[in-house]
Amino acid sequence: MSIAPDAARGLRHVFVRGLTVQALLGVHAHEQAQPQRVVIGVDLSVRDPHAPMNEGPDELSRVVDYGTVASIARRIAAAGHVRLAETLAERIAIALLNDDRVLVARVSVEKPDVLADVTSVGVVVERTRF
């Protein structure tokens, strides 16, 4: 399943990009002792019951709120030390799938300050509701 809006399939795309948090993430001793900058990206494929022809009510309760998405990611990133970026991304994706409207969750976790000669390192995971 694609992370893209698709009116014919009744899908919308909700995203949060560049969410920057301080997190205890990594396998090295200094990463376990000192939080580091972590950048999280979330892309969701969400059911849109009003697509393809109608406009839904202009009410926050009918949509997946990107503020809530960011809060969930922040809470999970701050919950304690995680060894692998993959694990952090998986935890966020799985939590976002708790909303029945979310069909696909793609989450990126980047560590921009790990290697001096690169912009960022990280991982992208995708989890799908079946």
What does this molecule look like?
The protein contains three helices and four strands, in the order βαβααββ. It has one domain (7-128): GTP cyclohydrolase I, C-terminal domain/NADPH-dependent 7-cyano-7-deazaguanine reductase, N-terminal domain (GTP Cyclohydrolase I, domain 2). α2 packs antiparallel against α3 (85-96). 22% of the residues lie in helices and 33% in strands. With 130 residues, it is α+β, with helices and mostly antiparallel strands.
What structural keywords apply?
elongated, GTP Cyclohydrolase I, domain 2, 3 helices, 130 residues, 4 strands, alpha+beta, 4-stranded antiparallel β-sheet
Helix and strand arrangement:
Blueprint: E1 11-23, H1 29-33, E2 36-47, H2 66-77, H3 85-96, E3 102-111, E4 121-128
Antiparallel strand pairs: 1-2, 2-3, 3-4
Helix pairs in contact: 2-3
Keywords: Folate biosynthesis, Lyase
Domain Dihydroneopterin aldolase/epimerase: 14-127
Enzyme class: lyase
Question: Given the structure, what is the number of helices?
Answer: 3
Could you spell the SSE succession in H and E letters? EHEHHEE
Q: What is the helix content?
A: 10-25%
Indicate the multimeric state. single chain
Lateral arrangement of strands in the main beta sheet: 1-2-3-4
Shape: elongated
CATH structural class: Alpha Beta
Assign the structural class, choosing from mainly alpha, mainly beta, alpha/beta, alpha+beta, or little secondary structure.
Answer: alpha+beta
Number of domains: 1
